[in-house]
Design brief:
- The chain has seven helices and 16 strands.
- It is of the alpha+beta class.
- It is globular, with a radius of gyration of 19 Å.
- The two termini are about 20 Å apart.
- The strands form two sheets. Strands 7, 8, 9, 10, 11, 12, 13, 14 and 15 form a nine-stranded mixed sheet that branches.
- It folds into two domains: about 120 residues, Aminotransferase class 4, branched-chain amino acid transferase, N-terminal domain (D-amino Acid Aminotransferase, Chain A, domain 1, 2-Layer Sandwich); about 160 residues, D-amino Acid Aminotransferase, Chain A, domain 2 (Alpha-Beta Barrel), CATH 3.20.10.
- It binds pyridoxal-5'-phosphate.
- Pyridoxal-5'-phosphate binds next to helix 5.
- The site of pyridoxal-5'-phosphate (PLP) has 13 residues, from helix 5.
Length: about 300
Amino acid sequence: MAWQARLMIQNGKLIPWEDGRIHPHALAVTYAATVFEGIRAYRHPKGMFSVFRLDEHLERLAQGVKIMRMDDPPSTAQLKADVLRLIPANEPDDDVYIRLQVLIDGPGTQATRGPTGWTIVAIPRERNPKRSTGLAVGVSSWTRLMDNASPPRVKATANYHAGRLATLQARADGYDAPILLNTRGKVSEAAAACLFIIRKGTLITPGLTDDILESVTRDTVITMAREAGYRVEEDPIDRTELYVADEIFLCGTGQELTPVTSVDRLPVGDGKPGRITMALQARYEALVRGTTPDHAEWRTPV
Ligand SMILES: Cc1ncc(COP(=O)(O)O)c(C=O)c1O
């Protein structure tokens, strides 16, 4: 990775990377009062950058801020302008990963609602090295969070405590990633990505009330798969459906679209990345990078 982040944004100000500051006694740290987005900007072969589905990411962030009852949060217009000036300020020469956090930037009690601050970094991020060969996943013995306890719909840093435990267990057990079942025993998602299975040509993914993040990539996949003529269903998925699926893939801004080739050491299909999966991966790549004119509304030029 050639470029390095030199500048970041904190509370609307462009500052050197080393100057970012959060007090250790701020609620962002003491009670994980932070909601965030992970967003990617892609470099077109001709050199220009665009941010993929920036408006949808900011809309989800605003929902999380509302549910977390933060006082006087930054406006969506402010955050959008900040993202769009931070990227060129770092002079990237390759794809960019943006992490945007809105947080309680002061001390207090569990009932404290402000002051609300924000930080944005734009950094290089490697793509999943298994995106062409496929992931070995294991169904976790940890249970997915539920809406009435720590709502997965909110992209809160607090939720990633559970995701980390599942990921660390999966790694200890020799898997690349965990798949979590929800409190009803149905498949929810991976620790940082949504999941699709394919059976007899139909794509199936858990619904928005199956304890998943309302993923932007999941929505992209549903749209592009339907446009390619596939049937897509949003339905609960049983654990054993993972074992009999023809194809499985994970999707998310960070993971992009990555095939799963085994679950609990049972091969998925013939144990190789699936044909439909890889066709969708190629289509996703064209859409995010802008090498197709389709869905220009999803790409915000930098
Ligand atoms: C728990 C979880 N699920 C799903 C996703 C995918 O969401 P999105 O497609 O909006 O990046 C993420 C983030 O990438 C995540 O952290």
